[in-house]
Amino acid sequence: MITRSNLAEQLKEYQIRSKHDWASVSFFSSTSNLNSSRVDVAIFVIWELFTLAFLVFSAVSLYFRHLKLAIILLCITLLLLLCMRIAKHVRLARKKKRRMLLPLSM
Q1: What is the band of 23 on the pLDDT scale with cuts at 50, 70, 90?
Q2: How crowded is the C-beta side of 35, counted as CA atoms within 13 Å?
Q3: CB-based contacts of 37, cutoff 8 Å, min separation 6
Q4: Which of 3, 69, 73, 94 could form a disulfide bond with 58, CB atoms 3.0-4.6 angstroms apart?
Q5: Which chain regions cross the lipid bilayer (predicted)?
């Protein structure tokens, strides 16, 4: 028989299982702690590595006096940061929408 206490207990167990305490994934993040899955963390780390690589390549091209290449790499880096920010907001909006679809009786 399903009772309110059983539902509350199941919900509490589900929340404990699904909770991830991660440190801040990104210094580009607007929040200090993210409740993200490991896949999200891996994706953001890869994006940040690409961003860092583009910044380093841009600095190297400036060192060798290739101004056009440095500007192109900086533009690519800025676009990459913008895409990362948009992807994060879209993912959080989907998560919020899914959370709102849970039955309120729980």
Answers
A1: very low
A2: 8
A3: 20
A4: 73
A5: 41-63, 69-87
Burial class (CB in 10 A: 0-12, 13-18, 19+), 48: middle
- Give yes or no for a contact between 70 and 62, defined as CB atoms under 8 angstroms apart: yes
Q: Which of 31, 85, 86, 27 is nearest to 52 (CA)?
A: 27
Q: Measured between alpha carbons, how far is 60 from 42 in angstroms, rounded to an integer?
A: 27
Structure tokens at 24: 């801040």
Q: Is 28 helix (H, G, I), strand (E, B) or coil?
A: coil
pLDDT, tens digit (0-9, with 9 covering 90-100), for 24-58: 444 455 444 455 678 878 888 898 899 999 999 99
Nearest Cα to 53, choosing from 34, 80, 89, 83?
A: 80
Cα separation, 74 vs 56, whole angstroms: 10
Quote the radius of gyration of the chain (alpha carbons, Å). 21
